Amino acid sequence: MLTSQLLPPLEAIPKFTALRQRYQAVRDQTADLCRPLLPEDTVVQPIIDVSPPKWHLAHTTWFFETFILKDHQADYQVFHPDYAFLFNSYYNSLGSRVNRADRGTLSRPPLNDVYAYRAYVDERIVHLLDTLGATGSEVPAAFAGLFELGLQHEQQHQELLAADIKYILSTSPLAPAYLPAPAPAPAPAGSGPALPPATWLPIAGGNYRIGYEGPGFCFDNEQAPHEVYVADFSLQNRLVTNADYLQFMEAGGYRDFRYWLGEGWELAQQAQWIAPLYWMQHAGAWYRFTHHGLQPLNLAAPVTHVSFYEADAYAHWAGARLPTEQEWEIAARRFRPAVAAGTFLESRAFDPQPLAPGADPAQCHQLLGDVWEWTYSAYHPYPGYQRAAGALGEYNGKFMLNQLVLRGGSCATPASHIRPTYRNFFHADKRWQFTGIRLAR
Amino acid sequence: MLTSQLLPPLEAIPKFTALRQRYQAVRDQTADLCRPLLPEDTVVQPIIDVSPPKWHLAHTTWFFETFILKDHQADYQVFHPDYAFLFNSYYNSLGSRVNRADRGTLSRPPLNDVYAYRAYVDERIVHLLDTLGATGSEVPAAFAGLFELGLQHEQQHQELLAADIKYILSTSPLAPAYLPAPAPAPAPAGSGPALPPATWLPIAGGNYRIGYEGPGFCFDNEQAPHEVYVADFSLQNRLVTNADYLQFMEAGGYRDFRYWLGEGWELAQQAQWIAPLYWMQHAGAWYRFTHHGLQPLNLAAPVTHVSFYEADAYAHWAGARLPTEQEWEIAARRFRPAVAAGTFLESRAFDPQPLAPGADPAQCHQLLGDVWEWTYSAYHPYPGYQRAAGALGEYNGKFMLNQLVLRGGSCATPASHIRPTYRNFFHADKRWQFTGIRLAR
Amino acid sequence: MLTSQLLPPLEAIPKFTALRQRYQAVRDQTADLCRPLLPEDTVVQPIIDVSPPKWHLAHTTWFFETFILKDHQADYQVFHPDYAFLFNSYYNSLGSRVNRADRGTLSRPPLNDVYAYRAYVDERIVHLLDTLGATGSEVPAAFAGLFELGLQHEQQHQELLAADIKYILSTSPLAPAYLPAPAPAPAPAGSGPALPPATWLPIAGGNYRIGYEGPGFCFDNEQAPHEVYVADFSLQNRLVTNADYLQFMEAGGYRDFRYWLGEGWELAQQAQWIAPLYWMQHAGAWYRFTHHGLQPLNLAAPVTHVSFYEADAYAHWAGARLPTEQEWEIAARRFRPAVAAGTFLESRAFDPQPLAPGADPAQCHQLLGDVWEWTYSAYHPYPGYQRAAGALGEYNGKFMLNQLVLRGGSCATPASHIRPTYRNFFHADKRWQFTGIRLAR
Amino acid sequence: MLTSQLLPPLEAIPKFTALRQRYQAVRDQTADLCRPLLPEDTVVQPIIDVSPPKWHLAHTTWFFETFILKDHQADYQVFHPDYAFLFNSYYNSLGSRVNRADRGTLSRPPLNDVYAYRAYVDERIVHLLDTLGATGSEVPAAFAGLFELGLQHEQQHQELLAADIKYILSTSPLAPAYLPAPAPAPAPAGSGPALPPATWLPIAGGNYRIGYEGPGFCFDNEQAPHEVYVADFSLQNRLVTNADYLQFMEAGGYRDFRYWLGEGWELAQQAQWIAPLYWMQHAGAWYRFTHHGLQPLNLAAPVTHVSFYEADAYAHWAGARLPTEQEWEIAARRFRPAVAAGTFLESRAFDPQPLAPGADPAQCHQLLGDVWEWTYSAYHPYPGYQRAAGALGEYNGKFMLNQLVLRGGSCATPASHIRPTYRNFFHADKRWQFTGIRLAR
C-alpha cells in the first residue's frame, strides 16, 4: 500500500469519468508516439540506456496491470503469465526479470502482441473505472493517487521514448527521419543572427521553502517540503545556445583538462568526445541528427545532448558555474514561468527552440520545457524523505546516489507532467536525453 | 581476379539458362527460410555470433552486387550508396563497415527495403545472365566459378540463418516455434528404445589422398589435394546420441576436470554449463528448444549443440577420442555415404534424426547431414594452399588459426552444398550450430 | 601560484626553525610507518585503490621537490629526471605519468633508491629553510602556506599508507602481522559485555555557519565558510559497534534488497559481500584481519571497513539514516570533541577502540578519530569555492563529483591532521579505509 | 603413478650420487639466475603471462616437495601448510590455489622465506638420495623418471625466469640492466654488414618418423613416435634477422592487412603494434631493451620477441610460409645440429647471436638455441598420446588446444634441456619469450 507521503492527496478528487478520459488521452499519446515506427525500430537496444519502444509499450501496460488491476479487479487474469518476467523494469519486490542489458535481444512477443496486451489492459481498466463510477461513489484518494502514478509513469516513458527513438534511428548511416521536417526549415547553419549575450538576474539570498507543497500530484522525491538557506546568486536569463557552445569548442574546450572534472576528462578522452551527441561536421559546417533527420545547426537554439561533465566544463570556461537545484527552484518560484511558453512533447518539435529575439532581458526565460537543465546537486533524499512500503518504495528511493538533479523539463516532456519542483536525475555521463545548460554565479 | 586455385574449373560448364535456374532456386530458398519470421525477428543480435536475418538477406545480395554486377554489368548503379558500409561482412579490401558486434543495433533499412534490394539485384542478375546467354557463347570458366561462389556463399548463409533463427527465438521465455511441430511428434523423453551401442569400424593405416580433386566446385580451403599418412584407426558406425550423452552427464561429466581441456574446463565453470545448449530440465525430464518450440528429448537422436570442449570431454570419458579430419575424410571415401540418407536443410526437420533401429552395424552411418562432426584438427591451410589475390583472398584464408575443422554437414546444410572434402570451421567454444560427436580410437 | 583561497594565512607565522622541526617530524613519521615492511611489501598493488608503499614514499618526496625546491631553490637539480614521470600522481599540469593502475608493475627504482631520494630532498629542504632563516626574515605567508600543504599532503599519505599496508598484508593466506599484537590482547569474540544501546542527542534546527573560518591551515575544500539551514535532528552519542552490526547481519541484512540502494545491492550481490571487509568466520566465530594479524572480533569496538552502501543499508535496517555533513559539523561544534579522546595514528593501535563502558550518555563520543564517518552528503564544492590556478588547482577540485563526504578522522589519521571542518571523500563502494557508521534521524 | 608413456626408461640408469650432483647443479642454476635481482624485482607481475621470480623459486621447490618428498620420504613434514595453496600452478588434482592473475599481489612470504624453503627441501632431497643410495640399490626406473621430470620442470622455469625478468625490468622507464653489458658491445645500429640473403635447402618428401624414440628423458607430448608423410619442401638455412625484419617494417608490413591473419590484424591494430616487443625508436635509430639495458639494434642478429601473427605476416610478405613442426623435425634429423653451436642459457648472453659471416650456405644453421621457431602446427596430441593418470596427467595434455608448436630452444633454454623432438607451445599472440622466424616453402 502506498503511503500518503508518496502520493499526497490530489487537489480536486476527479470523477471516474474524468479519470477515464485522462487515461485514454495518456495512453493514446504513447501509441501515437510509436505510430511512425516500423516493427524493426521497436525491438533494438543500441546502448543499455535505450530501451526498445516495444518494451516501453509493454512495460507501461504491465504497470497498470500490476498496480491497479491485480489489486482492484477481482479475479483479474493476467494477459500472459510470462509478461511480468519480460516487462518488469527494476522491482525486486516483484521477482526476477529480463536483465536491462538484454531487452534488445528479444524479438518476441511481437509488436502486435504488445498492442493486443495494451488493448486488453485498456479494456479492463476502463471497465474497472466504469464499474467503480457506476456506484456513484467518489474516487478514493488512495486509488486516485495510485492511478495518477500510473499515468505520470507512462508520461515519463513517453519522454524516454522520444529520446530512445532518436538514438535508435541515429545509429543508422541512413539518418532516417522519424517525422518529416517541419516547415519552414530551420535557418541554415551559421546564417541568421545568434542571440545577444545573456543577462544576469540577481536573486537575494535567504531562507526559502523547497519541495512540493500543493495538493495535486507529486513524486515522493519532491517531498517533504523543507527550508533551506541560500546565499545571493544570479542566474542567466536564458539557456546556453549552440552559438555559445561553439565558442567553447573553438576555444579548445574539449582539449583543455583545466575546465573538466577528473572523471569527466578521462571519459571525454576515452570516448573521444569533441562535440555534443548527434553533432557531425561536414564540409566545414556543423549538422545535428534530429527527429527530422540531419539538420544544419541552428545557432540560436539552446545547446542540448550534453553530459553534466560538458555542462560543467562549459561553465568553468565561461567563468561561471551550474546552479544548485535549490537556486533553480527559488528562481522558478520567483519568475513563475508559464508552461505555455515552453516547448514540450505535444509540439512534436522534438528540439529546443530559440528564444524570440526581442525577449525581455529582465525575465528568466526557458525555465520550463526545451531542455532539462543540469544542476550541481546530487540526487539525494530531501530531509524527511521516506520510502513507501512495498514495491513502489523502489520507484525512486533506491536511485538516490551518484546521479545529478535536472530541472525544468524538455521538449520531450509532456506539458502536463512538469512542475517547478520536479526532480529528474541522470548520471553525469548521460547525453541521450534533451539536456542543456543554464549558468549561475 | 580469382585464381584457378580458388575456383577450379567446374565439371560441366553450365549453360546460362541453367545458371539462371539455379540462381533463382538458391535465392528463393533464402527468402523461404525467412518467411515464417516477423520483421522483429530479423533485426536482433542476441550474441555476437548470431547475425540478424535481415543482415543475412542483405549481405548475400551485396555479395552478388559486389562481385558480379559491379564487375560484369556495364554502368551498374548500386541500389544504395550506404549498403556497402552496412552489409560488407569482413572484407578489409572493400573498405570500412559496421562492426560485427553492432549488427543488431540497426533497425534501418527496414526489412521491406532489404527485400526491395534483393529484387533489384535479382532482376539485374537475371538480365545479365540473359544478355550473356543471348550471345550463344558458353559461360566463361572464370565467370562460372565466381558465380558459383556467390551461390555457395548464399547457401552457407542459409545454414547460418537456420542456426541464428533458432538462437534468436530461444532467447524468449515464450519459447516460440519457428514452424509448427511436425507430425508425428517425437517420442516422449525417456520412452522408447535408445539405439544399441555403436560398433567400431576399423580402417587400415597407410598413405591416402586428401582434399578435393574432382572438377566441379570446391572452396579454396579444400585445396590443394595432397598425400597424408595415417596409422590404423577405428571410427564408430554412428553418431553419439542424446542417450549416450545423458550417461556422461549423469556420471558427473560436467563436474570432473579430468575429462576436460584446461580452457574448456575454465569456460564450463564460468558459464555454468551443465548440458548442451538449448537443453532444459523440467520436473525431472529433459527438454530441448527446437525450431518447433520446446520438445521432449529424443534419446535416440544424435546429440547436438555441443562445443568442441564438450565433445572432447565426452570422448575422454568414453575412453575414446575425436577423429582427425584426415581420418574422417578417409572413412568417408571408404564408406561413400549417400547424401540422400542424411537429414539436410531441405527436410525442414531442423534437427538431426535418429538412426533407423535396424541399421547395418558394419556400415558407417550419418556421415553426411544431421550434425557437423567436430574433429581434433586445427583449421590450417593445406600444403600448397594459396590465398587468392584481391578481396576474395579474404574469404577463407585469414581465418586459418585457432579454429577446429568440422566435417559432414548438418540438418541445416543445403543438400547440394556438402562434399566429403568440405571443411567447416568454428572456435572450440561455439555451440549454436548443429554440431555433434563421432568417436574414434 | 597559490591563491589565498586555497591556503588561508596561518594563525601564527612560524619561525623557520619551527618549520624545520615540524618537517623532520612529519617526514620521520612516514619512514617510521614503513620500517616494519620488507622491500617486497613496498612494491605490490593488489587493487587499484592501494598504492605500493614505495610509491607513497617517493610521491610525497616528489611533492616537496616539485612545489618547494623547484620554485624556491635556485639551480635546484632534480634527483632523477624520470622520477617526475614515475611519481606524479594525477597532475595533468605536470605532464604524463605512470597510469595509476600500473604502479604495482614497477620493481624499480628499488626501495633503497627511494630512501636515497628522500634523504636528498630532505637535505635540500633543510638547507633551504636554514638559508632562508639565516636572513632573520619572517617566513612569508605564501611560502608558509605552500610548505604546510606539503606537510598536510604527507600526512594524508600516512593515513593511506596505514590502510594500504593492511590491505597488502591481508592478501596473503599467511595473515602476517605488521606489528606484534598489543598486550593485553582484545577480549575474545563474544565474550565481555558489548556496549549498552546508544542514546539520541537532539540538536535544534536553525541557521548555522559551516566551513573553516580560523586562521591556521585548512584545505581549499573547507572553504568558503557559509551559512546553511538545517532542521531539528538527532545524532547517536556513539559509533555503531561490531555487536550492533552483527545484529544487522544476523537479521539477514545482506540478503534483503529493501535496505539497500540499487547500485549497492547490485554490487553486494556481484561481489558476494556478506560482512565488512577483513571479516572471516572460523568454527562459528568471527575474526578480523588487523595490523596485528588475525584477531577475534571485539564486539564493543566500532564497526569499520564498511562501504557507504553498507552503512546506508545498516541505517535503513535500524530505522535511522546517515547524517549530512552539515549536521555532523554542527554537532561537532556543539559537543567540541577533544582530539585527545580519540584513537589516532600515533597510538599505533590501527584499530578503532571501544567506548569506555561508563561513558556519559549525554555526550557525543568518538567524533574525532577511530573511524571516518560516512555522511549522506555528496562531495561537491562549497558555495564560493574556487579552484586555485596552476597544478595545485588539481589538488581537490577536480574530484568533486560522485563521492561522499566522510568526517572526523580515523585511527589512521595523524592527530595533528584533523579538524571538525575536514572533508574527506571516497566513492560509495570503498571499504579499505577505516570507515564507520554514526546514525542520525 | 606415472605411466611409462609419460616417462620412458632413461638410457643409462644414473647412480644416486650422479642424481644428487645433477640436482644440485640444476637448483644452483635457478638461484644463480635470481642472484642479480633485488627483492622488489621478485614479487611483481606486470602481465598475467609473467610470474614473479619469487613464485618461480617456490613453485619449482613445491614440485619436488609434492611429487618426490611427500611420496618417497616417510613422515615428511611440509615446510609450511599454506605453501601448497600459494605455489601450486595449475593442478586441479592438488586442490585450490592462488589465481594465476593474482601472483603479483602477494608480498608474503618474503624472498628470504622462499630461500629457506628451497634450503629445507634441498636438504631433505639430498638426504633422501643419500639414504636410498646407501642401500647400494640401483635407482628404480620410475623414481628416476619422476626425479628427472622435476629437474626438467625446473629447467623450464629457468627459461621462463629469463623471459619474465626481462619483462619485469622493461616496465621501468629507467631501463635497468639485469647484468652489465658484455664486452665488446654489439655493433652500433645500422653499422656493419648484415648477413647475405638466406639460401633455401630442399628436402625430399616422403614418409618419416616423428617423435621421441630414444631411451633417456622426453616429455609425454613428444610421444608416441609415429609415421608421417610430407611433400617436398625447403627450409631457409638461417633465421630471419633484424635486417630482414626491418625491411618488412619499412615496406609497411604492420599497415597492410593482406599479410595478416584476421585475428592477428585485429590485435595488431588494437594493441598498436609497429615493431617487435622491446623495440623503440630514438632519433631515427632503433634500440632494443635487453638483459643488458637498452642496446642498439644489431642488424645481423635473429629477430626475436615476435608473435606468431607477426611471424606469419612476415612470411607472407616474403612470399614464403612458416614450416610445420614435422618439416622442422625432419630437417633437424637431416642436418643434425650441434647443441654446442647454439646460444643457450648458460652463455648468459640472453640474446640470439648473429650467424658467423662465413657460415656454410649448404648447412642449416641456428636450429638449436638462439630463438624458438614458430611453426604453423597446432599443439595437439600426437597419435597414440595418452595423458598420465593422477596430477601429472595435467602437466601437458590439458593445454593441447589453441596453441602453436615452437621448436629448437632459445638463448634462454638450458643446453641440456633441448632435443630436436622437443615441443614448446604458446598462444599466437605471445611475444615475451625469445621467439623467432625461420621460413619454409
UniProtKB/TrEMBL annotation, chains A, B, C, D:
Q: What UniProt keywords are attached to this protein's entry?
A: Iron, Oxidoreductase
Residue span(s) of domain Sulfatase-modifying factor enzyme-like: 199-334, 361-441
Keyword Iron carried by entry: yes
Please report the stretch or stretches of sequence annotated as the DinB-like domain.
23-160
SUPFAM superfamilies recorded? C-type lectin-like (SSF56436)
Question: Which pathway does this polypeptide act in?
Answer: Amino-acid biosynthesis; ergothioneine biosynthesis
NCBIfam families membership: egtB_TIGR03440
Annotated protein name in UniProt: Ergothioneine biosynthesis protein EgtB
Protein source organism: Hymenobacter fastidiosus
Instruction: Recite the lineage of the species.
Output: Bacteria, Pseudomonadati, Bacteroidota, Cytophagia, Cytophagales
Q: What's the name of its gene?
A: egtB
